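Bumping with the actual sequence this time:
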Amino acid sequence: MSDENTLQANDTSHAECERKMKEFEAGWKRALADYQNLKRETETAQKELAAWSVSMMVHDLLPVVDHFDQAIAHVPPETGGWLQGITHIRRELEDLLKRHAVESYGQIGEVFDPSLHEAVEHEPGQREQDQKIARVVAKGYRIQGRVLRPARVVIYQSEQDRDKQE
């Protein structure tokens, strides 16, 4: 083989190595990007699972909170230290919920919102009270903006609106 042929073969071999190196580098970069995307998706999924777990626990705990509210609302005349104990336990439950970013909502006078409230009854009211909350049967709860349980409420309904529905 002549020097010229050897030189030409070396150039071809070098060009082939360069091409393969760029191909491997591009593959490595794609694999790295895929790994980073998977890592980000896994972290997001873990956060969602943790939030879901807390939501499920809180959802199961809400009837207990409701029962404490009902017990406190119907205090017998002679309570002694009983009421203080019940109120203290209720406060502890409320603090637990707050630590897990759970907030209660549903107040008398708020405007009824079907995405946040569940109307369990209608009560006669004036036109300016129409579709406002007259009474809260059970508070609503949300965690990080997502409704865990809608507030169960009684809403005012004016005579004009009652007549329209009939």
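The tokens above came from a reply further down the thread. The first helix runs from residue 3 to 73.
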